[in-house]
Design a protein that fits this description.
The protein is an alpha+beta fold. Helices cover 49% and strands 16% of the residues. It contains 21 helices and 11 strands. The strands form 2 sheets. It has a 6-stranded mixed beta sheet, with helices on both faces. A hairpin with a 4-residue loop joins strand 4 and strand 5 (170-177).
């Protein structure tokens, strides 16, 4: 079994590049080389053995993101990316019993400061309340062992410790030597079961600064936020992952603890280990360390459904910066049978030097310096967008690029995509998939994502065959069905000289 997965992947690689036909037993063999188990509390594990080197990659995904937020706490899911490795009641603290009291005092001081702002107090009163909060934080900081969680991982030979937040999921990941498997089980179980949200308000300040830099001080960031808000009228995909500034200033550590209690439950988390590990040992350690994690109800899916778009929507941002075009068409969720076809369409139309839009806009017209497209924005769990973008060249406008793109889409609707273009796109997509799963971390992310988003890790392995099944008729049907005017949202940055608005 130690070499079976590698052998199966090599066979699958040959299949991708057309060297051999795909015997069904090869895919079945690949599936058998992946072990899974679920603890009594609902926590699911996926384990893949690869004994090429004495290391393993770990990825865990919690099915929670900005899509689960409501007005008043936008940006809260993202906070757990910042809280991910702050420690527990035994890691990252000098004396937790005293630290806990100090953290409670910080919460009280923060609430007093916020109430002072709400009641319209004088600047002097607000400053005094803020100073009291900062002093409370200084007391709490005396008990903190800075970055102890990360230091433990690093001293054990770990690498790549990080986390990320998206609309649908929050992901945690790192790599460790295989002889540190028990350390992994201890660290992760404690982080999930006994988190301590220390330095919460300091990290909230960091997130506020992220918003200022990436959204408010960036023309692209401002356009993207306006664009997504325009594209979605009802569904929470229209909310910014980083959150609204007023919410960032207002939500509290207590809000975060309630959010964690609701969404960070065993049945809402998937963990994957890929590398030099023994599935039986992983299961034994999982039962020992994660077994005490109490089961809790899995949160319900988002209820709100985005209504069908009935008219083209546009948003224009006048800015001294670089002009930009973003075009989005509503599309089904990743669970749709058409999802692979959308990937193929994306590849044919806009990705790479052989794509239609690159050839037309960048090479032939020279109206753009860059074009591209991707699906699954802002998320994949619910219906998202087929997104196309272009950066106009000097002397050209976003409107001119839009006109050229629409003409290319019209050609695709007429059925003029060739068999050669289709096969080229399929080959590139399958090759990209192979490169992804060759990496231990890539394989872990691929399997985790399929389990969380699609409800079945095995669907990750069917992706190459799904791509192979896409036909020219499928592409034409998608274009005719979805790439239509009333389903379109257009966002543009129109370059405007500084002072032009004042002069008018």
């Amino acid at each position: 079994m130690r070499r079976a997965l590698l052998t199966s992947l090599l066979l699958l690689t040959m299949l991708v590049f057309g060297a051999i036909a795909a015997p069904a037993q090869d895919i079945a063999k690949l599936e058998k080389d992946i072990s899974t188990f679920t603890l009594d509390n609902g926590l699911k594990f996926i384990v893949v053995e690869r004994h090429d080197s004495p290391v393993f990659s770990y990825v865990s995904m919690c099915k929670v993101g900005s899509v689960n937020e409501v007005p008043g706490i936008t940006g809260l899911a993202h906070m757990f990316e910042h809280m991910a490795f702050k420690g527990t009641d035994v890691i990252g603290t000098k004396d937790y019993s005293k630290e806990k009291k100090a953290l409670d005092a910080v919460d009280e001081a923060q609430a007093a400061w916020w109430q002072t702002k709400l009641k319209g107090a004088s600047d002097e009163e607000i400053a005094k309340a803020k100073e009291a909060m900062q002093k409370a934080e200084e007391v709490a900081d005396e008990y903190v062992v800075k970055n102890e969680f990360g230091s433990i991982v690093e001293q054990a030979g770990g690498t790549g410790l990080n986390a990320s937040t998206a609309s649908d999921v929050t992901t945690y990941f790192y790599n460790l030597p295989s002889n540190k498997l028990q350390l992994w089980a201890y660290l992760e179980s404690q982080r999930y079961i006994h988190p301590v949200l220390r330095e919460f308000y300091k990290e909230r300040d960091v997130v506020e600064e992220e918003r200022r830099m990436r959204t408010e001080s960036s023309s692209f960031g401002r356009l993207l936020e306006e664009f997504i808000t325009t594209a979605y009228k009802a569904h929470p995909y229209g909310q910014p992952t980083v959150g609204h500034m007023s919410d960032l200033e207002a939500f509290t550590r207590k809000d975060a603890l309630k959010f964690h209690a609701k969404y960070y439950v065993p049945g809402n988390v998937v963990m994957c280990l890929v590398g030099d590990v023994d599935p039986k040992e992983v299961q034994s350690l999982a039962k020992k360390y994660f077994g005490p994690w109490k089961a809790a109800p899995v949160p319900e899916p988002v209820r709100t459904v985005e209504p069908p778009q009935i008219a083209e929507r546009t948003v224009t941002l006048k800015d001294p910066g670089q002009p930009l075009l973003v075009m989005g068409y509503h599309k089904p969720a990743a669970s749709s049978p058409d999802d692979a076809a959308f990937d193929v369409l994306t590849e044919v139309m806009a990705n790479g030097r052989s794509s239609r839009l690159y050839k037309k806009l960048v090479k032939e017209e020279q109206s753009a310096v860059s074009v591209g497209a991707f699906t699954g924005f802002p998320g994949q769990l619910y219906p998202g967008l087929f997104l196309t973008f272009a950066v106009p060249a000097k002397g050209f406008t976003a409107a001119q690029c839009e006109s050229s793109i629409l003409k290319e889409f019209d050609k695709a609707k007429s059925g003029d995509i060739t068999a050669e273009e289709l096969e080229g796109a399929k080959t590139r997509l399958k090759a990209n998939w192979i490169r992804q799963v060759r990496s231990d971390t890539g394989m872990a992310q691929t399997l985790c994502s399929a389990q969380v988003i699609l409800g079945d890790w095995q669907k990750a392995l069917s992706y190459p065959s799904e791509v192979d099944a896409v036909t020219l008729d499928d592409l034409q049907r998608l274009c005719k069905t979805y790439l239509i005017e009333k389903n379109l949202t257009v966002g543009t940055i129109v370059t405007e000289e500084k002072g032009a608005e004042d002069a008018s």
